[in-house]
Write a structure and sequence with these properties.
By secondary structure, the protein is an alpha/beta fold. It contains 19 helices and 14 strands. The radius of gyration is 25 Å and the shape is globular. The chain binds pyridoxal-5'-phosphate.
């Protein structure tokens, strides 16, 4: 822009227009319209009546219970290593399972698309349509997942919330595993269906509930396939049999399994041979696929229903097209480089076995997510801190992400880790075990 012109910009017509519009407002609101052209400083004054004072007390209470979270900053890209608040770590915290988040092939695909399709999507796809990259991605996802159709959401969270709430409502019943991800939990709550939570993985308890609620208009079972904090799998064979036997819909969230499990990398449903019995499969592009966004795949009718009824789709601006292009590049790599998932699962199995032998409570993991359950939040913070002092990043996971008394270190492996890195982790864990420690203090 020509700076000279900008400097001499005449604001009088804008101010006149604002004054004109203010006349249309009820009297008591006219002050608001007048306040609009004020310089930024004036607008940043905080009201004397601080209606948010309660927050300080709540934050202090969280800190006292070792449950306060603080944001940190990382510099540059994250991968097998991570520079966090100026300190370098081996990174065992991220969900970049195939090591694709910083892969230059994804970045190149995104850069090329930025030049053609721009940065933002402008509006909901229902208002301005989808970009070429969105359409290509949806076609590729349907092909990859071997379903009639697929639909891309702005995140896995949005896909779950929007889909569950679009499928059931008042008069319906939804059955949800006790350890499901927050996005499924919130989808159930928003749906206004009756929510029945069954104990984790307990399909027999689920069957009892299904029998009790046989009169509900529609019934939907929702489950993660691979549980993000325990690394174990849902009993998908039994769940799909129950869904068939009782005439229920079955929704499976493959967020942590897409790209990792199955011969073709489609997830745990592929691995366990139940894809055709699962009506609604959801995945995310943000974890193993190294990009961002979520997707639903299934029948054409399902996708058309979601286009019309999933509020997180209808009322939200589409994913940036460049990110869709990066996700397509990631799908190519899932197909072309199957050794990534094979090696990841081999190494994960080996790590879990080693840690079990050393006496850690590793839990029922069968995957790249290796939790070390330690009980109290403070202990998890202490261990995470001691590892950080040794250059290892393994985040402490505390309630409400896990049940009270089940705080843990969540170690997630990536194809980007090599054997030497995993050995460093094991050695550091050996060093910190049993030591008296103080919690990790993030630098301010
Ligand atoms: C099981 C599960 N589903 C969905 C999501 C949300 O996916 P996204 O991060 O793409 O929003 C997560 C994220 O952690 C998850 O763990």
């Amino acid at each position: 822009m020509d700076n000279g012109r900008a400097a001499s910009l005449d604001l009088a017509p804008v101010e006149a227009a604002i004054a004109e519009r203010a006349k249309l407002l009820p009297k008591e609101h006219r002050g608001i319209a007048k306040a609009l052209p004020q310089p930024p400083d004036a607008r940043m004054q905080i009201s004397e009546h601080n209606s948010l004072a309660w927050i300080d007390a709540e934050l202090s209470a969280l800190a006292e219970r070792d449950l306060l979270r603080r944001l940190m900053a990382h510099e540059g890209a994250q991968g097998a290593t991570l520079s966090l608040d100026g300190r370098a770590f081996l990174n065992f915290g991220s969900n970049d399972y195939l090591g694709l988040a910083a892969d230059p092939r994804l970045a190149d695909a995104a850069k090329q698309t930025l030049d053609h399709e721009g940065c933002g999507s402008g509006a909901s796809p229902l208002i301005v349509g989808r970009a070429e990259s969105h359409q290509r991605l949806e076609r590729r996802l349907a092909e990859f997942e071997q379903t009639e159709a697929a639909l891309v959401f702005t995140s896995g969270f949005a896909a779950n919330v929007g889909t569950v709430a679009a499928l059931v409502g008042s008069g319906d019943a939804v059955f949800s595993d006790a350890l499901n991800h927050a996005s499924l939990v919130d989808g159930c709550r928003l749906s206004r269906a009756e929510v029945h939570v069954y104990p984790h993985g307990d399909w027999r308890a689920l069957e009892t509930l299904l029998q009790k609620k046989a009169a509900a208009r529609r019934r939907l079972i929702v489950t993660d396939s691979l549980f993000s904090m325990d690394g174990d799998l849902a009993p998908l064979v039994e769940l799909s049999e129950l869904a068939q036997k009782h005439g229920c819909m079955l929704l499976v969230d493959e967020a942590h399994a897409t790209g990792v499990f199955g011969n073709q990398g489609r997830g745990a449903c592929e691995w366990l041979g139940v894809e055709r019995q699962v009506d609604i499969r959801i995945g995310t592009l943000s974890k193993a696929l190294g990009a961002a966004g979520g997707f639903v795949c299934g029948s054409r009718a399902l996708i058309e229903w979601l286009v019309n009824r999933a509020r997180t789709y209808v009322f939200s601006t589409a994913l940036p097209p460049a990110i869709a292009a990066a996700a397509i590049a990631a799908l190519d790599l899932v197909r072309e480089e199957p050794q990534r998932r094979a090696q990841l699962l081999d190494r994960s199995r080996h790590l879990a076995d080693t840690l079990r032998e050393q006496g850690w409570q590793v839990g029922p993991t069968v995957s790249q997510i290796v939790p070390l359950v330690v009980g109290e939040a403070r202990r998890a913070l202490e261990l995470s801190g001691a590892l950080a002092e040794r250059g290892i990043w393994a985040p402490a996971i505390r309630p409400p992400s896990v049940p009270a008394g089940a705080a843990r270190l969540r170690i997630s492996l990536s194809f980007a880790h090599d054997d030497a890195m995993v050995e460093r982790l094991v050695n550091a864990l050996n060093e910190v075990r049993g030591a008296a420690l103080s919690p990790f203090a993030p630098r301010k």
